[in-house]
Structure formats: structure tokens, C-alpha cells
Amino acid sequence: MTQLTVQPSQTFAKIGLPAPDFSLLSTKNMETLEEKISLEDYRGKWLVFFFWPFDFTYVCPTEITAFSDNYEEFLDLDCEIVGASVDSVYTHRAWTQTPRDQNGIGPVKFPLVSDFSKETARAYGVLDDETGAAHRGLFIIDPEGVLRYQVVTDMNVGRSVDETLRVLQALQAGGLCPANWKPGDKTL
Fold first, then answer.
1. Any idea what DSSP says for residue 89?
2. Owning domain of residue 141
3. Spatial distance between the Cα atoms of 99 and 94, rounded to a whole number of angstroms
4. pLDDT digit string (tens) for 113-171?
5. Is the entire prediction scored with pTM above 0.70?
6. Domain for residue 131, yes or no?
């Protein structure tokens, strides 16, 4: 069993507090790969910010392509998506230029960022120090930059786009949402 040692001064992302800031190289400009994306770029909109362990693996493409295939549903809810891993932007570009049927993800509708330094994964509490990979962490950040939802799963378990959409809609509903609440249901 792995033991985690947390230094007293070490802080992680916490619900109800401002989300940790970031400024990371992205695939926003696929030709130069020099355009950075920051949390501040999404001020005034909802943001789904998620991490996956590594590019060119098995579960990761299923999640990224699922979010890309449902991207318009998020836009309809005034929400953007940004994906992150500890791989380089060059690896991200190669992965998006590789067809899905050849272990790639093909083009995606939202930017992928490189947390090559691993500082952002560490700030969000998803860095696995043993492997150097990020766990599957998903964070919903409100238009003011406050962290409203987080889920971190084992590296072997993919996340549900439908559940992410449901939680986003529940957060936007502004009331107390009981278990199994769905859009259109009454709040408490």
C-alpha cells in the first residue's frame, strides 16, 4: 500500500474555493503549439477541466472522444471543456492527428493542454507521484472561477459524460438537487 505524505504547506483544490490557476501550452493553435490557455480565459463561463493519465493509452481515448462528441451539449449550457495530461503538446498533436481506429483520437472540438511540469496536476490533487501520471480527475468550475465539483477515479475507470452533464445542470439549477435529480425535476 502506498503512503501519501502531505506537507503542511501543501494545498489542493477544494470545493467552494477559487480553483487553482493555470497557464499551459495547448493545442489551440495546432501549427505552432505555442498558444497558452489559462483559467482566466474562461472567466464568465462554466468550465469542465479534466485530466487523464497519458496519451496513446486505452481508456483515455474513450473519454476524450466522448466529451468531444458531446461538446455542443456543453456549449448549450454555456460551458467550455479543457483536457489535460502530463504529456507534451507535441504528443497531444500526434494523438489528434492519428485516426481513432489506429489508437488515436482524431480531431477534438476542445483544446488539450500540456501539464508537462506536473504543477497543475499537483495543485488539483491528481498527480500520482509514483507513476508521474495524473489520475482521472474532473473538475467543474463556475463562471467566477470557484470550484463546484470534483471527482477523481482510478486510472482504470472512465468517466461518464452523461453524469458530468447532469451534475453541471444540477449546479446551474441553483437549488438543492436530491439524489438522481435530472433536468426538469423539482429541486428541494
1. H
2. 46-173
3. 10
4. 999 999 999 999 999 999 999 999 999 999 999 999 999 998 888 899 999 999 999 99
5. yes
6. yes
